[in-house]
Amino acid sequence: MPDARWDRRRWLVLGVIGLAQLMVVLDLTVMNIALPSAQRALHFTTADRQWVVTAYTLAFGSLLLPGGKLVDLLGQKVTFLAGLIGFAGISVIGGAAVNFGMLVTARAGQGAFAALLVPSALSLLTTTFSEPRERGRAFGIYGAIAMAGSAAGLLLGGALTEYLDWRWTLYINPILAGLALTGAALLPSGQPSRTRSRLDVTSVLLVSSGVFCLVYGFSNAAAHSWDTPSTYGFITVGAALLAAFAVWQGRAANPLLPPRIVLDRNRAGAYASMFITGAGMFATFLFLTYYMQQTLGYSPLVTGLAFLPFSIGSAAAANLSTIVLLPRFGPRQLTAFGILAAAGAMVWLAQLGPHTGYATGVLGPLIVDGISLGMVISPAISTGTFDVAPQDAGVASATVTVAQQLGASIGISLVNTIFAGAVASYLTTHPTSARLTGRQTPTESALAHGYDTAFWWIAAIFAAGALIAGAMLPRGPLVPAGSPSQAVDEVTTAQAT
Questions:
Q1: Is the Cα torsion angle 130, 135, 141, 144 positive or negative in sign?
Q2: DSSP structural state of residue 137
Q3: 101-153 pLDDT, tens digit each
Q4: pTM for the whole thing?
């Protein structure tokens, strides 16, 4: 008979995990609004400022798979605590930065510790909640935090910058980490893998350098052009290194990403859905932030408040989808419909004009987008970590986040480059709409054209994602491999397709 005290403690464990996840997700966006203040304080150039954000995502995405493997080798609790303490400590260094190099180094350190913290947190969640009903509730709450945290980071970043100082966007992390550490005693020990395996250095070098080159190349495209050697060269090398990594995983004695994890059709579909969702969601955040500040003239705090409908809608949908809808319908209908609805929200946003207000042109699609993506993220996380062997829990958890981080980096870079090209093209074809002040300055009409073009492209990305999710994800509810219901489900799926 299960221990009632442990049943209660498990939800406290979820609170500890949720705080850690909130801290990591906040740092994906909290520095965005604080960047102008940090730039003035540390005197770095406009060309360099992107690295304050990119340093975090580069280290995070590049080290996630090795971090997930360390979780499996060293144990969940050890790696969780190490990641939590390290993230808090390096945040203090970043907050005290006296120059650009110190700030960027600290941001990269945050990404490295996040790459250890996130897979250990998700692995703890996966092993702590195994009963289907409770697992759905737990993943619903976790997904709500993941969805709402990104938008909340914009609000928190604006409030801290406006009322305290930009450095508090980093100093807030030790406070959150301290709250999480007070409940660390509740965490299960999370024993290391019993199998005698080691960290494969070749795999680590291939995947880390491959992800780094790929993300760097796409990030470079946003500041330069696609035909710049530093853009296509890094992208080509990154793709080649990742292809070599995939081949090596089938031959390595201790693969970093065992092929059995990604060759499972359900999990592969979940990873693809997370990639597409990350690409569209973070690109939307970027362009709506600029639209509200440049076109609508909102302050950083008001911009953050304007994202609250997204946060509320996504949090509510994440819980509803994982607790109620996923057990009934399964991930295919839920995820495909959610991504398709998000595409519709982007088509709506693509109607923005130079004088469109928030209430008439932004609020409605923002609510639809939040609800739609809330229906996707939590089920995708649950499916991507479902029915994995205990020794693979950390790597499977890391792969979910790798997909999202890669999608975010590539999506932002791709769509930002398209946006810049659309604005330049508009100014070329509408010369009377540009005013000269020593250089050509985009007008409201040119910017509106760029935003509309960007949102049309995001809509296309989401539409492609809906097709992929519909083709790859299982039609019915998730069932463990080898269960009697699996055979029935396979026959039904074969007949349907």
A1: positive
A2: H
A3: 999 999 999 999 998 888 888 777 777 776 766 776 777 777 677 666 766 77
A4: 0.77
Report which residue type is found at 299.
Answer: S
Q: Which helix (H) or strand (E) holds 249?
A: helix 229-249
Give the pLDDT confidence score for residue 195 in this predicted structure: 52
Pairwise CA distance, residues 281 & 147, whole Å: 10
Cα pseudo-dihedral 173, 174, 177, 179, rounded to 10: -110
3-class SS letters over 314-331: HHHHHHHHHHHHHHHHCH
Which string of DSSP letters, residue by residue, matches 415-475?
Answer: HHHHHHHHHHHHHHH-GGG-EESSSEE--HHHHHHHHHHHHHHHHHHHHHHHHHHHHHS-S
Number of helices (H), then strands (E), belonging to the chain: the values are 19, 2
pLDDT at res. 484: 47
* Integer CA distances (angstroms), 424 to 3, 169, 452, in order: 65, 34, 14
Task: Tell me which residue has tokens 């911009």.
Answer: 303
Residues constituting the chain: 497
Tokens of 352: 């923005």
Rounded CA-CA distance 361/365 in Å is: 8
pLDDT in tens, 256-266: 788 888 888 88
Chain centroid offset of residue 25 CA? 8
Residue type, 355: H
Radius of gyration of the chain (CA): 22
Print burial letters for 461-481: b (CB count within 10 Å at least 16), e (below 16): bbbbbbebbbebbbebebbee
